[in-house]
Write a structure and sequence with these properties.
Elements lengths: L1 E5 L3 E6 L2 E6 L3 E5 L6 E3 L4 E6 L9 H8 L1 H11 L7 E6 L7 E7 L2 E9 L5 E2 L7 E4 L2 E4 L12 E7 L5 H21 L13 E2 L3 E7 L14 H22 L9 H5 L6 H9 L4 H9 L1 H5 L2 H18 L8 H17 L5 H11 L5 H19 L2
Parallel strand pairs: 6-7, 13-15
Antiparallel strand pairs: 1-2, 2-3, 3-6, 4-5, 4-15, 8-9, 9-13, 10-14, 11-12
Length: 382
Amino acid sequence: MLLGSYYDGVELHREEKIVFARFLTPHRVISTCGVDGGLRDDLECIYNHQDCEPTGHHHGAHNLAIGDSATYREMVSGAHGLIAGRCATLGTAANMNCLAIASDRFRDLEVIAACTGGVESNAGRAGDPAFIYEWEGHFERTVDEATAPLRGTINTMLFISQELAPGAMVRTVMTATEAKTAVLQELSVGSRYSDGLATGTGTDGIAIASRLTGKKPLTWVGKHSKLGELVGRTVHDAIKRSLALQNSLTPLGQCSALVHIERFGAGRQSMIEGVDSFLSAEEGQLFRDNFVAIDRDPITVAAVVALVHLRDNLSWGIVPESCWREILFSYGAQLSMGVSGKVDRGLQYRTQLASEGHGTDNPSFLRLIYHAMAVGFRDKWT
């Protein structure tokens, strides 16, 4: 199925589990393709292919994509009438029906981004602990199979109507990557491998194509250039929409206290039990029965987000550890007030929280949040 034709230079098609772009005129391509990736001027197509289901699916195509990229490219290309040696390939577990396309233009410059994305199980932060070591063509796992991460990938295909110099192609990768990370920041997506905010996933791919016009190539794709602006905006918008389609990941869906503390080790059951430990049996049952309403209360979420941001600033060294207890109890009291609705009892709540004492480690941080929620909930109906 033809999804669209752009600047008389590229057609975007979707068939079964693949989205491919067929060039109508020559293009320069830079890609993360495992076979013949890098910078190329001789390609006719780039594509994004779903090689397995997101969870619990060990399909042959996925195994080939990991272990024999050349055969994988031959197999996928041949099945869709494409010439393997003329294709740059991206693989993913994301559904091609969740592809999102965004386009923008300035004068005669047009940029189109076509993205798929999934981050629920593989979101990570640059510098997180890794689990694969490559040497002499072999990939060695450095953790047990049972502890290996699940799948999740953000793939970006980007098309530009004007010719870019080789250095500008590389800078486009930078600008597009910043746009991807901005989306994850706006959605407060946490890493699955550390307690930091995610900057991408462990398997993200990108392919960028600029039309070879024979004119003087563009040389600048930074944030001060109109091209950089278009690249940033289209990639941002396409990735944000693809995550909404694939993972139902939206700003409204992230309005949850639990969502923002999961990266510190919280889960639904552990959060309920943590708050319940500060309540009587009757109060605890009432909290359990109404957990979703409390978890998604906007004022409560705002207070948790403030605490989490402060915790991040502590880890980054912006907030000194010597001030942590004072900050923790003051903002914890804000959370108690958010739950109870009694905004005049901040000092009382602060005193109650300080009586327990809490450290700077993640379990202690979560315990403070649970305690603050319990203090407010206990006082809500008095």
